[in-house]
Amino acid sequence: MEKTRNLLATGTGIIAVGALIGVLAALLQKLGNPGNMGICVACFDRDITGAVGMHRADVVQYLRPEILGFVLGSFVAALATREFKSRGGSAPLARFVLGMTAMIGALVFLGCPWRTLLRLAGGDGNALLGLAGLVVGVWIGTLFFKQGYSLGRSQKQSFGTGLLMPLLILGLLALRFIYPPVEGQTQSGVLFYSAKGPGAAHAPLFISLGIGLLVGFIAQRSRFCTMGALRDLILFRQWHLFSGFLALLAAALVTNLVLGQFHPGFEKQPVAHTQAFWNFAGMLVAGFSFALAGGCPGRQLFMSGEGDADAGVFVFGMITGAAFAHNFGLASSPAGIGPHGMAAVAVCLFFCLVIGFGNIERTRA
Fold it and tell me: Which of 21, 30, 166, 364 has its CA 20 to 30 A from that of 220?
């Protein structure tokens, strides 16, 4: 197991992990997941939020097994390698708010960093604006890092505290088996299911869950993180994580070409809109939020599986942000941004700046 950990942490390992994620994401799309959305942490968290009734947008409600697998796969990997460490207590309210702002920004764009790459790999030119916004948002975050920004250190916590997120995820998985979707119905027991739209598009359950578990395991071992890739490249000119970032894009592109899923252009792209500035601005807010929180949404899920309660707080912030986005008209759709999406971007940027400036540690004389 130690050899496996070292292998995945090497330069070759991170490239292999990124490439495998790219291939698997494209395959999930072929097997039924929405277009250019084989894996999207933000969108899938949003779907789960709808599945448990926290929002009632009936086209985006499905208990995505991939997300559950991410946490459980990371949990298994951390236990197997003795890296499961219960920790937390580092500015939980700030992390919760950052989770909300990250999700709202992502839903204005319609995708997380992973989906930004997958949209590019599918030929969606609108994702170029999202990628630019992501880079600028992370770059702004690095300016705060240089000034001493920090949310403080986590503290060791009880083993039981670290188990809470994996147990909660196991509970959601149990609900998925107890209340499976029923053809012709939009509700099964306590869960809601989309009958149309992106929420109704999904790969087979056990394939989705299996891929989620695998990705969770290898990402925990390799420390794969899209935000970290950009941060390290901008701050330190380090290419280690960024090589995995590029590998995901390249592998997904090649797989899409092979499968006939590459359709270049800006118009009529799946689950996307063409409002260029808001594609840029939404991902700027998301990238800024991820930087201040210390990880992209995928990395936050993986850390929550290895006992990091602070990452768990961020995840629940994202879930709450998804509920707000769809309950209050903040999220975009293929028709364009929501009626209150512009105001939401401005408010989220304001809160990010408050958290950024408010957590710069001043050097004492």
Answer: 30
The label of the residue with tokens 């188990």 reads 163
191 by Cβ neighbours in 10 Å (0-12 / 13-18 / 19+) ranks as buried
Confidence of residue 6 (pLDDT cuts 50, 70, 90): low
Distances (CA, A) of 83 to 80, 152, 217, 295, 308: 8, 21, 12, 18, 11
* Residue type at 252 in one-letter notation: A
In a domain, 296, yes or no: yes
pLDDT value of residue 343: 98
Q: What's the number of domains the chain is made of?
A: 1
Q: Model-level pTM?
A: 0.95
For the beta carbon of residue 160, count every other beta carbon within 10 angstroms.
9
Amino acid at 288: F
Q: Which pLDDT tens digit goes with each residue over 300-353? A: 999 999 999 999 999 999 999 999 999 999 999 999 999 999 999 999 999 999
pLDDT of 145 reads: 97
DSSP character at residue 295: S
User: Token pair for residue 236?
Assistant: 């330190």
- CB burial string 26-54: b at 16+ within 10 A, e below: bbbbeeebbbbbbbbbbbbbbbbbbbbeb
Whether 365 is in a domain gets the answer: no
Mean pLDDT value across the chain: 96
Asked if the structure places residue 6 within a domain, the reply is yes
**CB-based contacts of 143: which residues, under 8 Å, 6+ apart?**
none
| Domain that includes residue 342, residue range | 2-358
Region 277-303 average pLDDT:
98
What is the bridge-based pairing of β-strands 155-156 and 87-88? antiparallel
First-residue to last-residue Cα distance in the chain: 47
Rounded Cα gap, residues 267 and 21, in angstroms: 27
**Cα–Cα distance for residue pair 202/230, rounded to 1 Å:** 30
**143 contacts 360 by C-beta, under 8 angstroms:** no
- Tell me whether strands 191-192 and 87-88 are parallel, antiparallel or unpaired: unpaired
Amino acid at 164: L
Give the total residue count for the chain.
365
